[in-house]
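Entry 14. Ran structure prediction on the chain below.
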Amino acid sequence: MSMPLRQEKLKSLILLGSILAILGLGISFYSLFHHLELKSKGDTSFMCNINDSFSCDDVANSRFAEDPWRNPLGIYGIGYFLGLFVLLMIARLKAELQKESLQTYALMVGIGVIVSLTLGGISHFVIGKLCPSCIGIYGVTILQAFILFFCRGGIPGPFAFKNISNGSWYALLALAVSIALFQLMKPSTSPQLTLDLPKPSSSSTTPAPEGKARVTPLDSLDAQAAPAIKIDASPYSGLGEDFRKGSDDAKVKIVEFADFQCPACATASKALRQLGAEFGDRIQIVFKSYPLDKACNPGMQSALHPFACEAAIMVRCAGNIGRFWEMHDQLFDNQSRIESSRITAWAKDLGLTDAQIQQCKNSKDIIAKIQDDIRQANEAGLTGTPTIFFNGRKYHGPANADEMRAVVQALLEG
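Output, structure tokens:
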């Protein structure tokens, strides 16, 4: 290859590779911020949550989203693309270091492609969800490989282990600096679930001290059960039946207070469904309503979620014909589409008649039951939705399946 052509390919490789490295850095930072917000709040409103199949939240909640030391994979993306950028800048500014920096760059691009294909396969085949921001990172990495292939003539040869070994120090330094800065600057995350806050209320229980590291899964629970939490197992007890899944004799009873328009509650719903499928009758899952809507919640000053009361009424109405959980899942699975006409249409699809729907909307008994759920939650120290209790003990951890599974297993073994 002629020298002018080699130089042209070298310039193209450095320019295009640097642009892609900066793009990869941007997406990796986006992924990192998403991960931190999710761990802090339990749910996010990031644009990468598109639907049930393309959901950053679901992928970031999986056990594959962090290394064993709790570093999110996003920080590795930052270190990786920063390393690529540093190597390309060295090649541009230091002619005598071009061989080792570009040969190391080529090796890193190849490793990046392998890792991207592996993580993409885990996401699709193991987790069963796809993360759009992750796909963006994979796409940038594969584009790097295409640029490298077409501009490979610009890399000085021959390839040698010594060159790559020397160049690797720059890449490893970039990764080490990224992880070290993350450890120094990462925000502390509160274990409280505080999305969509309702009216503050006094707590009858004492949560674990904020910032205190949990030693066992049960450290995420209050020490004592909240006496306000009651499960009515009969239509004739209390103000009406609490709809539940699993055996009434289950050793572990999980009570969730939730709002059908609360994004964090939709995430918790999926996690609880997963636990129900895994543990069967060894656990019981109980749903109680806490609509953030002044139409039925006396503690709300506004209709934060304007269809939440109507949804809470209609799900109990569906329970009257044995279709509570079908309506429950329909509402959470289609949360972004909730409005009055759709709530009614979904109820009809499950078998409710116009007369039954109107009767439920006018029912003082249903409203009284929902307001009793609200009273129980307030007395038990609810600070946001969802709020979850295990055997009456308030849970202070993130509402994802991995964390709650550990609590369930510890209670079953206790």
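Residues 188-195, 197-212 have pLDDT under 50 and may be disordered. Will compare against last week's run tomorrow.
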